[in-house]
Every structure is written in structure tokens, then in C-alpha cells.
Write a structure and sequence with these properties.
Strand content: 15-25%
Largest sheet: 7 strands, mixed
Structural class: alpha/beta
Shape: globular
């Protein structure tokens, strides 16, 4: 094995070039003399926030709205990619009693693609061949779809849950029933959620709901609907609105990966390094002192030793602990058994869709206006349908076509995951045809992208995760951040905040990891306006 030649500067090895890893790298170049060395096993940056290109069409894996309740994150994004020409797209961010223009850098006409767009948000539920607003609203569409009798049952069920809530609230089922009532839970939440996780909701920790759904409930949704007529149409930040109710968001013109490709470029321009197709396969340590990591080139297979003063890890906790070789059988067993949910996206390029009965919102070729559609139908495996045209029209090579992403939640190695790409494409097109969304004869092209360990799961040995957390916190120079690094279902802004807090802890010499673990741990996160650098 050979070795990298490190400079005399302190070195931080960063495992992973997703939002957390690249945020940490850029902040180190901005705020310190520490040199970041980023190693990414994939051939492109961005992690699950990357943009995959297939025959000129761009895919966003999972759908990434660029919105945050953190002022720091909103400013940070705009410093990387400014808002597109605001003479055409006026956009203001309103929060903390103030309103100001959403732009940190001037728009450059010479770089028309290096921008973020202001996009309208529309997500709906597809259930029993009908579209429902998401979140559900007590409007004419919902009443017409469900009928007055069913609405009355839902209201009574919600009232029962409100006045006689389940206590203690331990499972995700408890969490959802308490906030929506049993009737609505069984109608609109249970099937989709169990598709996502592959286990009954009663076996999933309530922590998942606390971190993903937070304060959303029927009463919040109704309050939001009543306030909507009085809300400024240019209010993009909407910090008083629950994340699931956001109506406008920012989005990179060429997909989410554009943000992280730009960040990687800035890291390298500032003297850091970003190495692709380089997988961390081992850690050298003496007691709690981490000395180096071992990197395998995914092309040649060669392994190199890289010395480091700090290790910022976005690796899956299961893999990180295995490389640390704790020698503690309890820690090893819990980490090894931590559950994950994998998913795959089937991209389908089609010429037209079949508009839903009575809908006037679709385009001439039948394309609905949604960013994504939650598929609640129990007789199909698809969990969610993305319409990439509506995220950004620049994701689609030919604007006369419709570029779809069908999301399937599975387990690495199971039957769905292992199905050959050509059969998956046919299967996915068949599911849309069965739901009367398309005719298969309009299919032009397709591709499949598999994402392992996409979702850290909140069941099984997760209940003992604190044992592993305490073990990781015992390494003075190790900082585990991001979605997989914290085994927490973070959005990309949460991952960025955890990385920024890790950099702050390094620079302050703070041995505590509490500021990292506190990110996305409560119903409201990082509402304060202080700048972190």
C-alpha cells in the first residue's frame, strides 16, 4: 500500500460527498486552516441528492425541495446558486417579522444555468382512482371524492383521538392516530407508510413521525387553509408553515446535484480535495485516537493509507462501527442489526398521459401539475410518482415529452431489487397502465437507479441506538453526521446543519456532540437567526 502525501496543515478526512460531507468540507475551507479530503465511493457527488442523467434527461432521486426553517441554510444555498433573474421571478423570504429579497449573489446573465428557480409545490394523493389534496383539505374535491357520510366518520374519529389520545405514544401508528384519527389513518396513511418501511406501522417508533411529520395534524392543516387567502404570494420561506404544507420552494435549474457539484468545485478551488470512486474500507486507531483511514480505488482496487487529524463520517453507522472494530459485543450486535430501507427509481419517458376524469389541470399531453403523487392504492407496489418536468422543465431533454420517476421501496437483494432493469421498466409501465394513468404504447425510454441504505429505519434494534451513539461519541476526533451518519431520516438541510455544527465543534475544541445530535431531534429546529460563520 502507498500513502497520500499530506501537507503540514491539519487534515480532516471526510467520508462521503453528499450534502453533509460537502458542507463540512466547504465550511472548513472558509473558516479554518484544516484541509478537507473528501472521499466518495460513487462516481459523482451529491449522495441521494445527486442528479442522475439518462439520455439527456435528469432524475432527482427522492425529490428535493430546497426549503429550510434555518436562516443559515437558506443563505448558504443562495451563496452557491443565486435566484434566477428576479425581474422575471420576484421572490421574497419572510420570517421573524421581516421581509427581504431572496438573493445572496447577483444573477449573472453570462451563467444562465447557474441559478435556482422558484417553483410551485403541488403534491396529491392518488386513491381509488381519484386525486386528493395533500395535505387533505375540507374542500369540495375532498367532499366529492369521499362523500358526506365518510367525512362525518373521519371527523368523529378525529374527535375521539383528540379527546381520548393513545398514551403512551410509542409507535408510529399511535402517533398518526393521535393526530389524524383512526379512520383517516387507515384510509390515507397506513398503506403508503407500510410500503415505505415494509413493516406494520405499529412496529415503527413514534420518533419517525416526530422527525418527519412534526406538528402537522388536521387542526394545523385547517388553520393553514384558513390563513392561505391572507398570505403574501411572494412568501417563499413560509417559516410559520409546517414543512409538509409549503407551497413554494427553491430548486436548482439542473436538479439537486447541481448544488453539490458547485459546492465540490468551490471546495477544490479553496484548496480542499474531492476524490470520486474512492471507498473508505478501514480505520486505523490506537484506543480512541483515530490515526488514519484506508481508501480503496473502486476502479483499480488499490488501497491507500490516508493519515488524518479528524474524521467526519457520513457512512452508515453499521459500516462505521464495523471498521472501528469496537470489541464490545453489545455495540457490535446493535450496529450490525440497525435496519435500513432501500429504494429504486424507475425512470419512464412517455409521450402522453391519460388525464384523470373531470380534471382540468393537466397539460395538452395529459401531464398533471404535481411535483409528486403519493400512490395509496394497495394493489400496486409503486409508492410515489415524480413528474420531473414540474420540478424543473430543464430536467427534460425534449419538453414535448413527460419524464416520470416511479419510486419503489424495497430491501437490497429482495425480489424487486434483483429484478433485471428491462423487466422493471415493463413492470413499472404496467402499474401506471393498471391505474389508468398511461397507455403503455406511449412509452419511449426507461432506466432504473437503485439506492441502498436510502432510509435509516426506526424499528428493530433502533430502540437501542443510544448505546451505539455513546460509543461513537467516545472518539475525540470522530464526528458522525448526516442521514446515515446519525441513523436519522434527515432532510438535506438537517444534514447540512449537523455538518456545520461538527465544524464548529472542531474549531471550538468542544468535546460534546450534543449540538450535532440535537439537529432534527425536536419539532422545531434551529429557528434562531444567529449566523454560524
Amino acid at each position: 500500500m502507498s500513502s497520500f502525501d499530506n501537507t503540514p496543515r491539519p487534515v480532516a478526512v471526510i467520508a462521503g460527498a453528499g450534502p453533509a460531507g460537502l458542507t463540512a468540507a466547504l465550511e472548513l475551507t472558509r473558516r479554518s486552516n484544516i484541509k478537507p479530503l473528501v472521499f466518495e465511493a460513487d462516481r459523482q457527488v451529491g449522495g441521494i441528492s445527486k442528479t442522475v442523467v439518462h439520455n439527456g434527461n435528469r432524475m432527482d432521486l427522492g425529490g428535493h425541495r430546497f426549503f429550510s426553517k434555518s436562516d443559515w441554510v437558506m443563505r448558504w444555498w443562495q451563496q452557491i446558486l443565486p435566484i434566477e433573474d428576479e425581474a422575471k421571478t420576484p421572490a421574497y423570504i419572510s420570517y421573524q417579522g421581516q421581509s427581504r429579497l431572496l438573493r445572496a449573489e447577483p444573477f449573472s446573465p453570462s451563467e444562465p444555468d447557474r441559478v435556482m428557480l422558484v417553483r410551485e409545490r403541488l403534491s396529491r394523493i392518488f386513491y381509488k382512482q381519484r386525486y386528493f389534496d395533500y395535505p387533505l383539505q375540507l374542500n369540495a374535491r375532498t367532499l366529492g371524492n369521499l362523500g358526506g357520510t365518510e367525512i362525518a366518520r373521519i371527523v368523529l374519529s378525529y374527535a375521539r383521538a383528540h379527546f381520548q389520545p393513545i398514551s403512551p405514544e410509542t409507535s408510529l401508528e399511535d402517533f398518526l392516530v393521535n393526530r389524524f384519527g383512526a379512520r383517516l389513518y387507515h384510509t390515507f396513511f397506513k398503506t403508503y407508510t407500510e410500503k415505505v418501511w415494509g413493516v406494520p406501522c405499529r412496529d415503527i417508533s413514534a420518533d419517525w413521525g416526530a422527525q418527519r411529520i412534526k406538528g402537522l395534524s388536521i387542526s394545523r392543516a385547517v388553520a393553514n387553509a384558513l390563513a392561505r387567502p391572507f398570505r403574501r404570494p411572494t412568501d417563499t420561506a413560509q417559516k410559520s408553515v409546517e414543512t409538509s404544507l409549503i407551497e413554494r420552494f427553491l430548486y436548482p435549474k439542473l436538479g439537486p446535484g447541481q448544488m453539490w457539484e458547485e459546492v465540490a468545485r468551490k471546495v477544490q478551488a479553496a484548496g480542499g480535495e474531492v476524490h470520486l470512486a474512492q471507498r473508505i474500507v478501514g480505520i486505523e486507531r490506537t484506543g480512541a485516537n483515530i490515526k488514519a483511514v484506508f481508501i480503496r480505488d473502486e476502479v483499480s482496487g488499490a488501497v491507500q493509507r490516508v493519515g488524518c487529524d479528524y474524521l467526519i463520517s457520513t457512512l452508515a453507522v453499521r459500516d462505521l462501527v464495523a471498521m472501528l472494530q469496537p470489541g464490545d459485543t453489545q455495540v457490535e450486535a446493535i450496529a450490525r442489526a440497525l435496519p435500513y430501507r432501500d429504494f429504486l427509481t424507475v425512470g419512464l419517458l412517455i409521450t402522453r398521459m391519460r388525464p384523470s376524469a373531470g380534471s382540468k389541470q393537466h397539460t395538452a399531453n395529459g401531464m398533471p401539475p404535481d411535483n409528486w403523487i403519493y400512490i395509496q392504492e394497495p394493489d400496486v407496489k409503486i409508492g410515489r410518482l415524480q413528474i420531473f418536468n414540474n420540478w424543473s422543465p430543464y430536467l427534460v431533454a425534449d419538453p414535448s415529452t413527460i419524464w416520470l420517476g416511479l419510486e419503489y421501496f424495497c430491501r437490497e437483494g429482495d425480489e424487486l431489487w434483483s429484478t433485471p432493469d428491462d423487466r422493471l421498466i415493463e413492470f413499472a409501465a404496467g402499474e401506471l397502465e393498471r391505474m389508468q394513468m398511461i397507455d403503455r404504447c406511449h412509452l419511449l425510454d426507461g432506466t432504473v437507479v437503485r439506492v441502498p441504505k436510502a432510509y435509516p429505519a426506526y424499528f428493530g434494534e433502533y430502540k437501542r441506538f443510544n448505546v451505539v451513539r455513546r460509543y461513537l461519541d467516545g472518539f475525540p476526533s470522530l464526528y458522525s453526521v448526516g442521514r446515515n451518519g446519525m441513523h436519522r431520516y434527515n432532510n438535506q438541510d438537517h444534514s447540512m446543519l449537523s455538518a456545520n455544527n461538527a465544524v464548529t465543534a472542531i474549531l471550538d475544541g468542544n468535546a460534546s456532540r450534543e449540538s450535532i445530535w440535537d439537529v432534527n431531534a425536536e419539532a422545531e429546529y434551529h429557528e434562531q437567526s444567529r449566523s454560524s460563520g
